[in-house]
Structure formats: structure tokens, C-alpha cells
Amino acid sequence: MSRLLPTALSPFTALMPITGTYDVLTVPVLLPSSTVASLLPQELRSHLLPVPAEVLADLGLTPQSADAADQESRQHLVVLQLGRQLGTGPGPMALHFQEAKIEVPYVRHPDCPDEDKTYSFKLMCIFDSKVLCMGSAVQAGLTSKTTSFTPTDSPSCFEASAPSISYSAEGYMSVEATSTHHAGGDAGPRTAKALSEMAWFGAATPRNSASRFQFDEGSVDAQPQS
Predict the structure, then answer these.
(1) How far is CA 37 from the centre of its chain?
(2) Domains parsed from the chain with CATH numbers
(3) C-beta of residue 10 within 8 angstroms of C-beta of residue 215
(4) DSSP, res 42
(5) pLDDT tens for each residue of 39-80
(6) CA of 71: how far to CAs of 51, 67, 107, 132, in Å?
(7) What is the spatial order of strands in the sheet that 173-178 belongs to?
(8) Quick one: pLDDT band at residue 85, thresholds 50, 70, 90?
(9) Which single residue of 40, 53, 67, 105 could bond 44 by disulfide (Cβ 3.0 to 4.6 Å)?
(10) CA 199, CA 195: separation in Å to the nearest integer?
């Protein structure tokens, strides 16, 4: 688990940059590749790319099997982002809202000629605002849902030194994150940031395009925690 409070620059289009702070718990998990593939659109189910061993090591994850030929025991990385947007929006807009994401990194884009270039597929975005949910679906082409969150402003309502953080999106996920020491030092937060900055697309994103976030760790708001 990594907590990252970056200032985000998210240019969905060059004419309307979206800026703000995303206070987020990044939770990486390994699931059977067959399960992950079954959650993807049909055209992407054969597009999972290998996750580098060093990425898994940085995240403190150990695959159950290293035998690439063993189809049944292969695993793939799924990333939960449990966050709250603070002062986020285009231009003068500065909205505060809950936004959780379920992402599958290391996916090949169906229209990218470089078959080894990695993308992240946004499986689902969950908001506490119907307006933002609709905007996410229409503007970015993402599968988006609306629900209530408990606490209503997690993880921002917890101090950086809190021993545990709870985050619940009703009907979708309930997480209790406990602070532990990871021997990898800064490697975990650094890799979590790299995953968050991977180019991404969704189920209805125009197939000739992809977007990416940029996180400014130099901002006074940025406090990576492991």
C-alpha cells in the first residue's frame, strides 16, 4: 500500500487541462490472470502483458508461480486507487469529491502498433457525484459508477501518521489499510507513482487515443507515504 498526495496535471485535451490534488491509497494486488482477463472487454482478453519482476518486488508482491508455461497459476497485477480529489477541475473549477478506481496495468492497446508498449486499462471509476460520474463516462469513455463513501472524505480525514485508514465505497469495496514498514524503502511509492502515470484508456475511450496523469512531487501537497 502506498499513499500519494500529488498535484495532478491531467490533460484530457490540450485545451482543458485538469489540475488538482489526488489524495490516494494505492493498493496493488495479484489475481489469477484468467480472472483478470474475464473482467476485460472481449477484444482485450488476450492483451495482458507480462508484469516485470522488479515491479512486483518493489510493491512487495510475490507471484505464486514463476512458471510462465503454467497457464492456471499465472497471475496479473490489479491496482486499486482509493482516493479523494481536492481542488480538482478545469480552469477556475476546484471540486472536492471521492474517486476510487480499479485499474489493470500492463495491457496492450488494441490500436498501438508497438505491441510491447504498456498501457493501463481503467476497469471502473467510482464517484460520490452523479455529475462527475457522467462526465467521466462521456468525456473519458470510462465505466463509471456512483455510490456513497465511508468515511465521506477518506483518506484525507486521516493524518499521514495514522496507524490505519478505512475506505469504503458501498457495494463495491471496503478496505482497512494498516501502516507497515516495507524493506524496499522508497521503491514502493516510486513504483506506485509510475503505475499511476502510465498511459491509460477505458472501455469507450476513442481507440486512437490515450491519456495520462502527471504527478508533481515537488508540490508542498505531495507527501508519498508507504
Answers:
(1) 17
(2) 2-9+18-216 (2.40.400)
(3) no
(4) G
(5) 999 999 999 999 999 999 999 998 876 555 566 678 999 999
(6) 15, 8, 17, 39
(7) 149-150, 164-169, 173-178
(8) very high
(9) 40
(10) 9
